[in-house]
Amino acid sequence: MTTDAIRQREQRTGWILVTPALLLLLLVFAYPIGRAFWESFFTKNLGSELQPVFSGVENYTRMAFDGRFWGSLRNTTIFTVASVVLELLIGMGIALVLNQAFRGRGAIRTIAILPWALPTALIALAWTWIFNDQYGVVNDILRRLGLIETGINWLGEPTLAMIAVIIADVWKTTPFISILLLAGLQSISNDLYEAHALDGATAWQSFRQITLPLLMPQILIAGLFRFAQAFGIFDLIAVMTGGGPGGATETVSLYVYSTVMRYLDFGYGAALVVVTFLLLVLAVAIANFLLSKLRARAAGVESR
Amino acid sequence: MTTIDRPLDAQADEIAVAKQPPKPGFSWQRLGVPIAAFLIAVFCLAPILWQLLTSIKVNADISAVPTVYFPTRFTLNHYTELFTRRPFLQYVLNSFLVSILSTLLALGLGAPAAYALARMRIPGEKAVLAGVLIVTLFPYILLFLGLLEVVRALGLGNNYLALIIPYTAINLPLTILVMRSFFQQLPRDLEDAAKVDGFNTWQMLTQIVLPMTLPALVTTGILTFISAWNEFIFALTFITREDMKTIPVAAAQLGGASIFEIPYGPIAAATVLGTLPLVILVLLFQRKIVQGLTAGAVKG
């Protein structure tokens, strides 16, 4: 057999192994997105008796003047930025602690992953109970501390409801970030710190000048993953507030869901999906650009 | 696209082995670190433990003001109510069925693809990998509208396949990425030697490669199982028959006869039961989970 024939056979076997997975990915990821692009140019709702009627960019012009859409985009942005920033800060703190040597570290590390592994919908139920206006433990603690007289209606006040869902999300997903950052911390050689300490650097200086720059790839990757997940948050908010009160915690995901499932407005729902998708792609492109710039810089430092 | 190219096992070992003595110079750490560690444990456990405590309180204590932190009366009524007044056992079975089948399918489709992407030179390999990486970032809300049509067109509404197929697909990217990085670390000599010994490709894969792959399969399998067990939006949309619901949806929809009668006790009990299998998984496989997560994410 010639090398060409061997290579051809290898390629064929390779494609046979890859194709089933690829087909499934196309069906579940590519088709729905492509379909949404197509459907977004049609009106398909109760007004059109659920029959698709071509309407050009009407769905998109409608979106431009849809206050509820802009409100949901604002809520999504607040939720995403607040939760990702808090998670990165707290996740970094937890990773730094778990990287130290102390007794019972293995047990604490196990406990520290736990929230990430549990079902978000059930965790949302737990936090709904914690923030309950009558019997919730948060109100009880505040009352015992004498900070409040009567129970606060956490999930019933716009700003407080947003704070409550952000707290629940931070609790649930900070472990994901600390796992990634901890792995990054463990790959940093201890010699660097010792040499730096000999030069008279303080712990804070070491953190700023060694830990942070070397950890930057992990921080960006963790941040990117979390950004995408937080931007599409659905289950946590759907269970805790259902988007309420008065739409104060309605994110784009929840708006898409009720547009389709409650108002049966498939065309407009598709346009919302398209815009959400494009916003996400834009954000990922920016993050990827930053990441590659960072890597280029890191490579430059190493080769010096 | 790789930032850290080190064997998975080496990373795991570092995680397991106590690495460094406390650094000289900051002695406050000796006091501060254990306190911080304790606070982390409290932060991570408190909401779950609170739900556990609520689930065994009697109704009078649940709705007591001020809150009862150390109840003197305990009850299992909230648990028995879940099984007698609702088909909770069925929910549990549904969740297990759907999660296990999609885990097996994701491994069965993902591992061969990962092997091909790691070992064979396929034209278009880069494009396939880039695509796989990008879809890990897709929120499921972008998919549910199109999938709803697929489900309707194929008549899969209220069919377990309406969950198994998407769950398999949404876990394929991670499976492929983690398994691919595993195969890349596998010494190629073994496969070459098997070929010299007259094994054909199929025999080589099943008799030599597969047994060595088991640990990595377990790692990715656990991650898939967790994600399938936790999924909410597809389960909420594609399954409406009561006796086919999975735990997250069924628990979220537990309601009383009226809005004034929210069954806090049974909700807490359902939370505890629904999280229990995952708590056990984390306790047993903490190292593997960390290993799989870091491998999957870092390969991005």
Key features of this structure:
heterodimer, A: 304 residues, mainly alpha, two-stranded antiparallel sheet, 12 helices, flat, B: 300 residues, globular, disordered N terminus
What's this entry about, in short?
The complex is a heterodimer of chains A (304) and B (300). With 304 residues, chain A is an all-alpha fold. Chain A has helices spanning 3-39, 58-64, 67-98, 105-117, 120-130, 137-144, 158-186, 190-198, 203-231, 235-240, 252-261, 266-303, and strands at 42-43, 53-54.
In words, what does this structure look like?
The complex is a heterodimer of chains A (304) and B (300). Chain A contains 12 helices and 2 strands. Chain A is mostly helical. Chain A has a two-stranded antiparallel sheet. In chain A, helix 1 packs across helix 12 (266-303) and helix 3 (67-98) runs parallel beside helix 7. Chain A starts with a helix and ends with a helix. Chain B is built from 13 helices and no strands. In chain B, helix 1 (8-16) packs across helix 13 (264-298). Chain B is globular, with a radius of gyration of 24 Å. Chain B has helices spanning 8-16, 28-55, 59-62, 77-84, 88-119, 125-135, 141-153, 161-185, 188-196, 201-230, 233-238, 247-252, 264-298. By secondary structure, chain B is mainly alpha-helical. The interface between A and B is large, with 108 and 110 residues.
Oligomer: heterodimer
Low-confidence stretches of chain B: 1-23
Could you report the average pLDDT of chain A, rounded to the nearest whole number? 88
Let me know the number of strands of chain B. Answer: 0
SSE series of chain B: HHHHHHHHHHHHH
Head-to-tail CA distance between termini of chain B: 6 Å
